Amino acid sequence: MTQHTELNGNSSHSPILLGYVIVNKELIDDGKSIGYFYRETPDSSEDSGWRFFTGKETQEFVDNAENFVLYSASKLAALHPAILPFLGLNAPVELEWYEDDYVIVEEEQ
After folding, report:
1. Residue 80: which domain range?
2. Could you give the number of structural domains in the chain?
3. Immunity protein Imm33 domain: which residues (predicted)?
4. What is the pLDDT of residues 63-104, one digit of tens each?
5. Is the pTM of this model over 0.85?
């Protein structure tokens, strides 16, 4: 069971727009909406640790690396400005679209 912590677009976290993110190509090429994203420990100095998905991918889709691309964080924020207030959050963190805004996903203990 997951819980949601409400965050609004006026978050006090300053966005980090340097580096790259790993993105489902459909978010860029097809203009699909971001439904789920998370930040983990980065893989390299250029990697921000952010991973972006529609939230509707199958496991088969996710397992195929050709469905994802390394993309500029600032370019993704320009395409999907609603993520901007959250890019300064530290890893680990997960967010998803819930009703009308992004919320932090918290696992119940």
Report:
1. 2-107
2. 1
3. 21-100
4. 999 999 999 999 999 999 999 999 999 999 999 999 999 999
5. no
Give phi and psi for 11, each to the nearest 5: -55, 145
Query: Is the omega angle on the peptide bond into residue 85 within 30 degrees of 0, that is, cis?
Result: no
Q: Which H or E element spans position 77?
A: helix 73-79
Please report where in the chains the tokens 């983990």 appear, as a residue: 40
Distance CA 28, CA 31 (A): 5
Q: Which helix (H) or strand (E) holds 56?
A: none
Structure-token match 């998905």, residue found: 53
Whole-angstrom Cα Rg for the chain: 13
